[in-house]
Specification:
mainly alpha; neurogenesis; DNA-binding; developmental protein; DNA-binding transcription factor activity, RNA polymerase II-specific; Neurogenin
DNA sequence: TAGGCCATCTGGTCCT
DNA sequence: AGGACCAGATGGCCTA
């Protein structure tokens, strides 16, 4: 995207080369900066691909080192320093510029490294988040939101399990709950408040009771059972996004619940969400920074 | 082609 | 003084 403010006076380049400084300095600084800039812009492409980051980092480093060395060769001082006091002879503008440039190049190197570390940490985070391998890589903001929501949903699950224990009811199907949590966090919906969970629990309980009743009468209805309890958590998209049918808040379409229930969330669309980044992105719409709903983070 | 995402550069600020 | 961190600017790539 071409930025129309390329010649904006706020631009560092323009700030340095703005009128007011001497002409000779202007040309020198401009040359140096354009050198650095062309060096750096040639680096931009090389780091874009994850596969080549190491090699490109190496290239960046060697180039930076080369630059620094060339600077050093210029600034080389005699081994026996004439002046040991702090009040050394004032450096010429050229030397000062070179010194500044060296510092800048070093700082750029550090900054690049820092951002690489940050990206590595994000990658690590992505690896511990449930993700279908067919899905596009989560963006940075999606990764953070997903992680936040996933952790929150899992902790809500824990509360729910504890509550279940206290009530001494039938144990929850953890696989089912895990899948539900994953789907909810992933889709930007919430598995949410305790009353909803209680309703879901009650529905689960009723369903299981009816199942038991039916089982006692005749052969077990496999299909019915599948309704409530997916057999195993698998990487298959359809089961990844399985949600119990008796989750009232999830399927609610009331205005109040819009942040919890994107319109495309119900079961028939889950597979589509998993396979289509576009549809998947839609599910985050109500969590965009402009959204009134907690900036995309729940609760 | 516009807009989103990203990597990088840069100058400022704070901390050690 | 030098490093870490931050936010703004810039330009490239990709996709709808």
């Amino acid at each position: 995207m071409m930025n129309t403010e390329i010649f904006n006076s706020n631009s560092p380049l323009m700030a340095v080369t703005s009128p007011g400084s001497s002409c000779s300095m202007d040309s020198e600084v401009t040359t140096i900066l354009s050198d650095v800039h062309s060096d750096m812009t040639s680096d931009v492409h090389s780091v874009n691909s994850d596969d080549t980051v190491t090699e490109n980092e190496e290239n960046c480093r060697s180039r930076a080192l080369k630059r620094e060395n060339s600077d050093d060769s210029i600034e080389q001082t005699p081994k026996k320093r004439r002046y040991t006091k702090s009040r050394a002879r004032p450096k010429s503008p050229t030397v000062v510029l070179k010194l500044k440039r060296t510092r800048r190049v070093k700082a750029n190197d550090r900054e690049r490294n820092r951002m690489h570390n940050l990206n590595s940490a994000l990658d690590q985070l992505r690896t511990v988040l449930p993700q279908n391998t067919e899905d596009a890589k989560l963006t940075k903001i999606e990764t953070l939101r997903f992680a936040h929501n996933y952790i929150w949903t899992l902790s809500e699950m824990l509360k729910m399990i504890e509550m279940q224990d206290k009530m001494q009811q039938q144990p929850l199907n953890l696989a089912q709950m895990g899948i539900a949590a994953m789907a909810a966090a992933r889709a930007g919906t919430a598995l949410p408040n305790l009353s909803d969970m209680q309703a879901m629990l009650n529905a689960c309980q009723q369903q299981q009771q009816s199942l038991q009743h039916m089982q006692s009468q005749q052969s077990p209805p496999q299909q019915h059972q599948q309704h409530m309890i997916p057999s195993v958590p698998s990487s298959d998209a359809s089961s990844m996004y399985y949600m119990p049918q008796s989750s009232p808040s999830m399927l609610s379409s009331s205005p109040d619940s819009c942040c919890y229930s994107p319109p495309s969330f119900p079961q028939q669309h889950h597979q589509q969400q998993a396979s289509s980044p576009a549809v998947y992105a839609d599910s985050w719409q109500c969590f965009t920074p402009t959204s009134p709903h907690n900036n995309g983070y729940f609760p």
